[in-house]
Amino acid sequence: MSSKSTVSAGKGKAAKGKQEKPKKPYADFPLFPHASGRWCKKIRGKQVYFGKWNDPDAALAKYLDEKDDLHAGRTPRVSRDGLTMRDLLNRFLTAKRHLVDTSELTHRTFADYHATCERLNDAFGPTRLVEDLASHDFEHLRAALSKTRGPVTLGNEIQRIRVVFKYADDAGLIDRAVRYEPTFKRPSKKVLRRAQQENGERMFEVRQIRKLLDVAPVQLRAMILLGINCGLGNNDCGSLLQKHIDLDAGWLDYPRPKTGIKRRCPLWKETVAAVRAAIDGRPAAKDDADADRVFLTRLGQPWTRDAIVSGDVGKAPKIAPQIDAIAQQFSKLLVDQGMNRRGLGFYALRHTFETIAGDSTDQVAVDHVMGHVDPSMAANYRHRIDDKRLKKVSEHVRKWLFPPEKKGGKKAKG
After folding, report:
1. Which architecture characterizes domain 206-401 according to CATH?
2. What is the pairing mode between strands 245-246 and 264-266?
3. Helix (H, G, I), strand (E, B) or coil at 242
4. What is the pLDDT of residues 219-278, one digit of tens each?
5. What is the architecture, at CATH level 2, of domain 85-198?
6. CB neighbour burial string for 361-391, b if at least 16 within 10 angstroms, e if fewer
7. Confidence of residue 12 (pLDDT cuts 50, 70, 90)
């Protein structure tokens, strides 16, 4: 694989002894022997490799086939023999990496694509010609993937795989589109509904949230309240900055990190008090860049971190994995309280807010608090939502969680 590869082709055994560099086959031979055991040429300030020492003719042929594109700064066109999986995956990842650099694609999405490409590389092999893939190859691949994935995760993986091969077709790298096995698609809605029923509803009841609030540590208690008060998810809380929250006025103005959609929500007095306590007891930030975060771990680090991709485009990327300490700590809390079950986690607070707030009958206001994309024509003409509507939605959820006391000092049943 050339130096531009971004998908590994396996590690070879280390040479026992140091080989002596060969001489050029003839004086005008355009390549030089590199210490790595390959023929090489420096092009546009970078060393490019074309083949092993023992086959200078093949290395020269590869150089002559690619030199025009390389000297022009272009990615070499597909080999005359056809598009290999290695070529496709590297080209696809390079294209996606350019989108990361222009902020058109998130680091996390690129990391998902990279993992998918690694799986395809392992499943089909780096030298397999893309046009040789047949329907039975995808039948076996789907069967293997379904052994370790639920319906939703399987559907997402299949979709990413189809995006990879669609890129090959759209970019004109293959003469005909890849033909999948008929069932190589997302699981049906029926299967998804059945799985959802088996896992149970992804929401909490009043007694559960009240119990969690009673026992949760200071910072996690504030996050739970933000989850049920404003529909904030894990990364929302982990990325929340103090500039996004006005505790004196009792408002949150916080575009969703995931989509950039504007979001505004009134804060309950319980939420304000909990967030104040979290900020007052917050440890010093380990990195000055995190000094404005509302929540920091005891080590002074962010509770969540998205995947981070680094390294030069065209080379194997360095990917720092995603971190979610909120999910970990909340899961421990659920286990301690006997509430742990599949499908129930911190993000279920967001599901709960959506479910209960929907009963307020103002779905437009609910979507605004949630930061949902509104594809309707009305959204193109709507430029703001009155705070009274947002307060009505927020208060509806608060009365569900903290029922007002009845006459005689007893609280209404929640």
Report:
1. Orthogonal Bundle (1.10)
2. unpaired
3. helix
4. 999 999 999 999 999 999 999 999 999 999 999 999 988 777 889 999 999 999 999 999
5. Orthogonal Bundle (1.10)
6. ebeebbbbbbbbeeeeeeeeeeeebeeebbb
7. very low
